[in-house]
DNA sequence: CGTCACTGCTAATACGTATTAGCACGCCGG
DNA sequence: CCGGCGTGCTAATACGTATTAGCAGTGACG
């Protein structure tokens, strides 16, 4: 492999066309301001040479001079393409890619970020954030200190998912979990449920907090509204607990857990929703085989991705008046797992 | 949003540490050659200032000066994150990301490339290829002219999947379809099959050509070895055709088609592999529901992605002696759809 | 005391583009 | 013939980093 032949530059074009490098740049950028004029024949000559040589501007040099790149960074706190085939990031990326394509931006995945304590770090030696004009942050839990630093540095970014303040408000495009969960609770109350249990994932992410907040706000009207954490592996003991408490409906944050619960119930001869209603608080992020349509809501992941790019573009070009924060509504899914309490009593 | 405060540069560090910008650069790059020496105390002073200010080198400027970016471009001829979870690219991207992370490179997805005639184009005005040190090309069919141009420009790239010459040999990491198909044909012949049919996808991609070549090479020993194209929608007429020809085994390129064929056979009271053997020439690229384990082979997509990055890295740093071309073996899958011909005759 | 080698640093320049101040020229009006 | 103005372009510079030639200072050695 021979040393890369030096690429064609504006200087080369200039020499061939008998003009200055500046003129080439002016022609390329179609400048026609009052104080910049190029004779049509000169312009044509330059354009002809450009076409002949197949010249293409070096985006790196362009960025250094112009301060903009048309590159949008994407930082994921976990690998962007996990091996589990159905993955958490995919719908977001889909939306991000779609909108990036629309606005003519390339996407830079920060795969070079080193992993410390099982999590990628944005900031490290030889930090490369500035390669992009701005950055989209993806991940369930985002490090507060890193957000602080981003804010301090004035680096343009948008988080996907609502974030608490971190040395100032954090720009985000999130999903309105609180409202969605509140609606589900109200639906359950409407159907006559009085003893509720919320089964969280036991993590401290804002997304979890918002769901819980929505639950607590609406569940005040219930006779009993408990709250505990649960995983799929716990299914058996959790089910014991639900029965002991005479809860008639459970709001389950994690999809795998709700599937495991239903299966555990079936094994004991209990039917969903006849004997127990199960609501899912978000669609699956890992592939869990089930043929049951769970009642719950859908997270507008794709749309979140799209809007994140849109918002970021405005942060970058400075047209965002203040810190943009958007919450998108979650669509309720009418499944088959919400019934009325005491349905079982009717037919013993 | 206030105007971005000017970022900290080496000049700032230099001023604060009372040295020159060059010294800062030398310290940063840990230069300790014979002809470059920095006193330990000076080095420490500079490093201290760097730590205090949180300075991070501008990767754009670095690239302009150093000619390398540690950015690997990824060009996909279709959107990288397709919506019908039909994700052809995913396993490749997974391998690419994994290896990129390992070698400390970021990944640039060329989403800005415009779509003309339903296909993205690498070359267009304001072509941004040079942002990356090199590029990985993904897509079943890759435009020959664009490969020509890449070769001519001396741009470092690697195609995923074997490619025919295009104004010179094309660097690639592909799958050895020819050998895999040949093995399957030999297996079928061993089991006593004598009348074979190959069902292709009717596209001109190299991957298709290689499968067909492997088939033709090994099928010479058969009594009848036909070749035609078929899609899932054709299943019924294709089945008629197979029966009329008394073919006992079909080699099916497209996974959806093989699934449709089996279903069509079942509808007619025929069993696979008792009455007809069906071999799949590659794992699914679209999710097709089936509970049958097809005999065939698996394409090492993830490994292809990994090795593509590895090879590209060597092309970029010039350590690839000649044009690298690798074919990875496909793992044979022992499924339940290859039987012996005339199995049915035994029990009418 | 001149020469030489060695140390530790800096000045200068390159990378390729974008921008801006301003030059040279021709033309017109007075 | 001079001032003024519009036209069409160029020279110079900035962007932030990497590299290299070479300078000043010091000590050793003949």
TrEMBL record, chains A, B:
Entries under InterPro entries matching the protein: HTH_LacI, LacI/GalR-like_sensor, Lambda_DNA-bd_dom_sf, Peripla_BP_I
Residue span, HTH lacI-type domain: 8-66
Annotated PROSITE patterns: HTH_LACI_2
Alphabetically ordered keywords of this record: DNA-binding, Repressor, Transcription, Transcription regulation
Claim: Transcription is one of the keywords in the record: yes
Pfam families: LacI, Peripla_BP_3
Domain of life: Bacteria
GO MF annotations in UniProt: DNA-binding transcription factor activity; transcription cis-regulatory region binding
UniProt name for this protein: LacI family transcriptional regulator
Organism: Micromonospora globbae
Lineage of the species this protein comes from: Bacteria, Bacillati, Actinomycetota, Actinomycetes, Micromonosporales
């Amino acid at each position: 492999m021979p040393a890369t032949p030096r690429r064609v530059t504006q200087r080369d074009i200039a020499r061939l066309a008998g003009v200055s490098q500046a003129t080439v740049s002016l022609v390329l950028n179609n400048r026609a301001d009052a104080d910049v004029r190029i004779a049509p024949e000169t312009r044509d000559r330059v354009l002809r040479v450009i076409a002949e040589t197949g010249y293409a501007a070096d985006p790196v040099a362009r960025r250094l001079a112009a301060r903009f790149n048309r590159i949008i960074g994407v930082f994921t706190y976990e690998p962007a393409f996990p091996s589990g085939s159905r993955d958490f990031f995919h719908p977001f990326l889909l939306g991000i890619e779609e909108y990036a394509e629309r606005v003519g931006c390339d996407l830079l995945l920060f795969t070079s970020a080193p992993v410390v304590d099982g999590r990628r770090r944005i900031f490290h030696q030889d930090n490369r954030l500035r390669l992009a004009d701005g950055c989209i942050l993806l991940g369930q839990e985002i490090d507060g200190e890193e957000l602080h630093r981003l804010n301090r540095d004035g680096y343009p970014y948008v988080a996907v998912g609502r974030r608490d303040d971190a040395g100032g408000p954090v720009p985000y495009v999130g999903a309105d979990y609180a409202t969605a969960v509140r609606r589900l609770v109200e639906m359950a109350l409407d159907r006559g449920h009085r003893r509720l249990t919320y089964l969280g994932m036991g993590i401290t992410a804002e997304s979890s907090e918002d769901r819980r907040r929505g639950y607590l706000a609406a569940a005040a009207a219930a006779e009993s509204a408990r709250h505990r954490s649960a995983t799929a592996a716990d299914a058996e003991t959790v089910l014991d607990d639900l029965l002991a408490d005479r809860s008639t409906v459970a709001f389950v944050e994690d999809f795998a857990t709700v599937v495991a619960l239903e299966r555990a119930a079936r094994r004991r001869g209990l039917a969903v929703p006849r004997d127990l209603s199960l609501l899912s608080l978000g669609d699956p992020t890992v592939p869990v085989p089930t043929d049951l349509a769970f009642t719950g809501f859908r997270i507008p992941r794709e749309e979140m991705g799209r809007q994140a790019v849109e918002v970021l573009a405005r942060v970058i070009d400075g047209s965002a008046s203040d810190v943009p924060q958007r919450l998108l509504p979650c669509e309720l899914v009418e499944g088959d797992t919400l019934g009325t309490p005491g349905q079982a009593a009717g037919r013993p």
